[in-house]
Amino acid sequence: MKKYVSIPYFDGKILLGEDIVAFDKLDGNNMRFEWSRKKGWYIFGTRNMIITEAHKEFGTAISLFKLKYAKELIYIFKNNPKYNKYKKAIVFCEYVGPRSFAGKHHPDDELDLILFDVNPIGKGIIPPKRFIKDFGHLGIPRVIFEGTLSLKFVNSVKKNKYNLNEGVVCKTIKKIDGNRISMTKIKTDEWIEKLRQNFGDQYVKDELAGKNM
Fold first, then answer.
1. CATH topology of domain 11-26+142-213
2. pTM for the structure as a whole
């Protein structure tokens, strides 16, 4: 089962000057759900492991997915001419609560599941504007910005002018090399500082280096 790609931090150059869509980056757990035209929804997982509904920590995410998204996605896969020829697809969601932070959840929170990407097998993640058009009605992350990625926008995210919990994920509006969406993430200074206060300087260094997966 395909894992979600590792998104690099904005380094001052990645996608600068490119046309992008920036989505609210939700601070929870990455979940994946695979569908087959023959088997239906048949494989479920976190970023790093395959699970079932019996899993103590994440099994409820599968139950929630079946209630919130499963039927609606199947309808699109079977009836929308953009997708009805695909035999398989993986969808990616974030499992998150109001007080979730760095992938950890408050025990009293009711968690939600938010769809953030769709990947027909062999075709790569669909472009963001198409994702918004075809799947936005199901419940997806808030669109923060559409346009040219500039340093002004980057700084506005870092200073949290958009009332973000964590930051944004910027995605190119078109595929590159026929099958790839380029992405970069920008975190607020507030989130980085909170990470430092909770886990220390080394953890922050590892986070910025992409080691905290």
1. Dna Ligase; domain 1 (3.30.1490)
2. 0.94
